[in-house]
Amino acid sequence: MMVQGQRNVMAIVIVVMLIVMPSFGSDFFVDFVMTRTLMLGVAAATIVFLSAYGGMVSLAQWLIFGVAGFAVGNVVADSGRGLTLGWEPWVGVPVALVVCSLLALLLGVLSSRSTGIYFLMLTLTFSVIGFYFFGQVTTFSGFGGMTGIDPPAFFDGEPKRLYYAALILSVLTYAGFRAVSRTPFGVALQGVRDDPVRMASLGYNVQLHRALAFTMAGFVAGAAGVLNIWWNGQIDPSSISISPTLDLLIIAVIGGIVHLEGAWLGAFIFLGANIYLRDIPGLGSIGGFVEDRILAEDRFNTVVGLLLLIIMLGSPDGVTGLIIRLSDAVRRRFGRSRPDAARLGATAVDSSEPSDADGSVTADRDRSPHQNQAISPRP
């Protein structure tokens, strides 16, 4: 596992590259590919946060992401479908964040007693309910959706500003989730992930920790949803259907669902494959069969499935895990072995047990109850 200093340096280098990217990148690459990557990365990071720190694999994050768009559309639009309140675009931001946070709190309370596959299926049920709600309740949308949702004047006609807004939100999300993981709440949440029965016996409210973590993730997903509706300008119930819901989970898995930075890497790979895979040189010389049939739009899910299968077989902890192992191999090759403590942390990460964003396991099953109480006080 890369030591803390190296990961910080790498994160700073990547952020600097993203800051200067509009200076040398094409308009399409920056305004579409990278802006979309950053927004999807933030949404996928909420899945990684709940899974890696709370042991909850949620399929409701895309629903909350979409609800933010519907909230903004109903508040801002002055014609068409929905409430058409016609308020100022900036007013839609707090409205959307409050609605998403309350929705996340409600869903978190309802699902806080479930674990594993039952939690996964329950959150999937929430997504299905949300799809039919906005499709059938024409007061808020209807299956036709809403169009013409204008962003604030500051972003209107300025896609680069929206790109930088998505970049700032990504940095805040990454730094915020890492900071939360080191707080007493974050450490207790990881204890709940590892052994909820033991944590409950120590006096921790397991359901409350799960519900609050779900609410926090919902707030972040809602913020990404606000940027998405400003970027897209329209939304309909198909935007929150099963297919994009699963796509967000695939993005998290491709990047590495135990690595927070993997959310953005997975989003970039997913979008890159969707956009550029058909432009691979030489495909046209194969009689058009590969390009017209295998890589056709309606068969792209098969391509993504094969890509996901290859990544999972080669690296169960995603592309980020593969990069980390390759980096370790290079350091060992040149005689710069990592410290024993870092090696122990990497061993834990390479196992099936999730760890924090730094690769260290913060909840130790072998500690005594008194030691666990010393780690994080009771809420």
Provide an overview of this structure:
- By secondary structure, this protein is mainly alpha-helical.
- The protein has one domain (4-276, 288-375).
- Helix content is 68%, strand content 0%.
- It has 16 helices and no strands.
- The protein has helices at 4-24, 27-54, 61-76, 92-111, 116-136, 159-182, 184-194, 196-201, 206-232, 242-255, 262-276, 289-294, 300-314, 318-333, 340-350, 369-375.
- Helix 2 (27-54) packs across helix 10 (242-255), helix 3 crosses helix 9 and helix 10 packs across helix 11 (262-276).
- The protein is globular and about 65 Å long.
- Residues 283-287, 337-353 and 355-379 have low confidence and may be disordered.
Largest sheet descriptor: none
Compute the gyration radius: what is it? 21 Å
Poorly predicted ranges (pLDDT <50, ≥5 residues)?
A: 283-287, 337-353, 355-379
Beta fraction: under 5%
In total, how many beta strands?
A: 0
Share of helical residues: 55-70%
- Average residue-wise pLDDT: 84
The shape is globular
How far apart are the first and last residues' alpha carbons, in Å? 32 Å
Based on secondary structure, the structural category is: mainly alpha
Brief overview:
The protein is an all-alpha fold and 379 residues long.
Essential attributes:
mainly alpha; 16 helices; globular; disordered C terminus
Task: Set out the fold topology.
Elements: H1 4-24, H2 27-54, H3 61-76, H4 92-111, H5 116-136, H6 159-182, H7 184-194, H8 196-201, H9 206-232, H10 242-255, H11 262-276, H12 289-294, H13 300-314, H14 318-333, H15 340-350, H16 369-375
Helix pairs in contact: 1-6, 2-6, 2-9, 2-10, 2-11, 3-4, 3-9, 4-9, 6-7, 6-9, 7-9, 10-11
